[in-house]
Design goal:
The protein folds into two domains: about 20-240, Rossmann fold (3-Layer(aba) Sandwich); about 245-430, no CATH class. About 35% of the residues lie in helices and about 20% in strands. It has helices at about 20-30, 55-70, 90-95, 100-105, 130-135, 160-165, 170-175, 180-200, 225-240, 270, 315-320, 325-335, 350-360, 385-395, 415-420, 425-430, and strands at about 5-10, 45-50, 75-80, 110, 115-120, 125-130, 140-145, 200-210, 215-220, 250-255, 290-295, 315, 345, 370-375, 380-385, 400-405. The mean pLDDT is about 95. It comes from Thermogemmata fonticola. One of its GO terms (molecular function) is lactate racemase activity. This is DUF2088 domain-containing protein.
Length: about 425
């Protein structure tokens, strides 16, 4: 079938951005009350998770430098719940994929899965915490604060969630998720109260990213300020996050899903589909999309295609990229099973896009609102069909770049994503291969 021509649209609204991330991180630690809690000779566990934080290695290195300057003996502890197949080796490999390892940091990296029950929360439920972190003289976290993919609450993704679920390891993650969204929204803060009382947690570095996935703000939140400050940072992050700048799409084509882009693989805050059992869909600030096509699973996901079910159609190679062990472990732990039902699959990208166009409820090709993005994290640049390009032409926050052109496919029917999105994670990955 014929495909619509597409044109590049760039979001140009001004975005806050830190020029020197390392310096900003060190200054944030030096300004904090948390640093005053650290004395020479203390063993400090630095909790790091599995998210693809921009400038992650730089941020961790800067944090370690300040701790060493203080005379402390820092080490890294994995704080990612059940990710990496809920195994020590799997979590070590996940951290190493971001260069969070002994070679690049010069400190021990501990990924053991053993936990200790440190008490019970107000729901009568046990609270689990990483044994290595508990044995330290102090614990600090490195967390990106952002809206969660599964629920809305005062605390979503950030420091508190890393304390409860990340450092809770497999048992902590399973225990919170066993209550579904109630566990995340309502019980997670109750478990955090036990952690603040019973563990050596000192404070956490909060990272906010702008709509272009660049570091917009860093701040150390002391343990005494967590309850008041993190919700404020969450609202700030909600205003900064990248979004698809259109209210309705007939077809959205996503190049890759992945845990490095979103905990849900495809971020519901971007595509507007929660797909959570017995829960309502989002109604505001998200686009209404009829058909979503997904082409690949990122290699950084290590076979964990969580969220692939948010898409309607996909490729056979995306399904082949799934490793059943981490895929099942993460989804059975999270208990959001609708999101990972396997979509209908086709052998080529061309077939997926054609099927999306044929089933999107808009039979007039020249009227189809088609949009292509590389993933749900990088949405500053989008390729769109003529109706959306015309809408963009009328807006001051969007810029049309170049002329309309055909979708680029190779001889096998694969979409040339690197040509469309030369600045994406995927394109940068190809350069390094």
């Amino acid at each position: 079938m014929q495909f619509p021509l597409v044109q590049l649209v760039r979001q140009i609204a001004p975005q806050p951005e830190i020029a020197d991330v390392s310096m900003a991180v060190q200054e944030a630690w030096h300004r904090s009350r948390t640093l005053d809690r650290i004395r020479p000779g203390m063993r400090i566990a630095v909790a790091c998770g599995s998210r693809g934080i921009r400038h992650y290695l730089t941020i961790v290195r800067a944090t370690l430098a300040v701790l060493r300057e203080r005379g402390a003996n820092p080490f890294i502890v994995a704080a990612m719940g059940s990710h990496g197949g809920a195994t020590s080796q799997g979590q070590r490999e996940l951290l190493a994929s971001y260069q969070i390892d002994e070679v690049h940091l010069g400190v021990p990296v501990l990924t053991d899965m053993e936990t200790v029950c440190i008490g019970h929360n107000s729901w009568g439920q046990p609270v689990w915490w990483d044994r290595n972190a508990l044995s330290a003289d102090g614990v600090v976290t490195i967390s990106r604060v952002k809206p969660h993919t599964d629920f809305r609450g005062r605390f979503e993704s950030g420091i508190l969630k890393m304390l409860v679920i990340g450092l809770g390891k497999r048992q902590g993650a399973d225990q919170v998720h066993s209550f579904g969204t109630r566990g995340l929204r309502d019980m997670m803060p109750e478990s955090a109260k036990v952690i603040l009382e019973k563990t050596p947690f000192l404070g956490g570095l909060a990272i906010l990213e702008n709509a272009r996935e660049e570091t917009a703000h860093v701040e150390v939140v002391d343990r005494e300020d967590l309850w008041e400050r993190e919700p404020q940072l969450l609202e700030q992050a909600r205003q900064l996050m990248g979004r698809i700048p259109f209210s309705a799409l007939d077809v959205l084509i996503v190049g890759e899903c992945g845990k490095n882009y979103s905990g849900a693989g495809l971020d519901p805050n971007v595509v507007g589909r929660m797909l959570i059992e017995a829960s309502p869909e989002m109604e505001t600030n998200v686009p209404r999309i009829t058909r979503i096509g997904l082409l690949d699973v990122s290699p950084e996901s290590h076979g964990n295609a969580t969220g692939i079910g948010i898409a309607d159609l996909t490729t056979t190679r995306a399904l082949a990229a799934i490793d059943p062990l981490p895929f099942r472990m993460n989804n059975l732990t999270a208990r959001f099973l609708w999101r990972s039902k396997l979509p209908l699959a086709f052998d080529t990208d061309r077939e997926v896009i054609a099927a999306c166009l044929q089933t999107c409820w808009q039979p007039q090709l020249d009227q189809v609102k088609l949009c292509l993005i590389p993933n749900t994290l990088e949405v500053a640049e989008l390729w769109v069909s003529a109706p959306l390009a015309e809408e963009a032409r009328q807006r001051s926050d969007l810029e049309l770049v170049g002329d309309p052109q055909p979708l680029p496919f190779d001889e096998t029917g694969r979409l040339l994503q690197e040509k469309l999105f030369p600045h994406s994670v995927r394109a940068r990955r190809q350069v390094h291969l």
